[in-house]
Amino acid sequence: MLFLSYSKIKIFQSCPRAYRYRYIDHVKPEFLPDYFILGELVHQSVAKAEKEGEDVEIVYKKLSSEFDLKREHLVEGLS
Questions:
Q1: Other residues' Cβ atoms within 10 Å of the Cβ of residue 59
Q2: What phi and psi values does residue 70 have, to the nearest 5 degrees?
Q3: Which of 1, 7, 20, 26 is the most exposed place for a label (fewest CB within 10 A)?
Q4: Which residues, 6 or more positions from 44, have their beta carbon under 8 angstroms from its beta carbon?
Q5: DSSP string, the chain
Q6: pLDDT tens, 27-78?
Q7: Measured between alpha carbons, how far is 3 from 48 in angstroms, rounded to an integer?
């Protein structure tokens, strides 16, 4: 089943190749700004909390601490 959203339509209209890379080929971008990562973290927290019946805030804190550890590891690797 094809699911269309405003974002998907807008990307397709502006650049059909970008649409293909993102939604058909599932190519991950080389760089993601922090605000995209934060948004993904929030979405994952809500989904996991709902699925497991936990408090969203607790799940968010767990996931964000894991994210910070990964980020520190990445920064150390760049030094």
A1: 19
A2: -65, -40
A3: 1
A4: 63
A5: -----HHHHHHHHH-HHHHIIIIIS-PPPS---HHHHHHHHHHHHHHHHHHHT--HHHHHHHHHHHHHHHHHHHHHHH-
A6: 987 777 777 777 888 888 889 889 999 888 888 888 888 776 555 544 444 3
A7: 22
Please list, residue by residue across 15-50, b when 16 or more beta carbons sit within 10 angstroms of its beta carbon and e when fewer do. eeeebeebbeeeeeeeeeeeeeeeeeeeeebeeebe
From residue 14, alpha-carbon distances to 8, 10, 34, 54, 71 in Å are 10, 6, 24, 40, 32
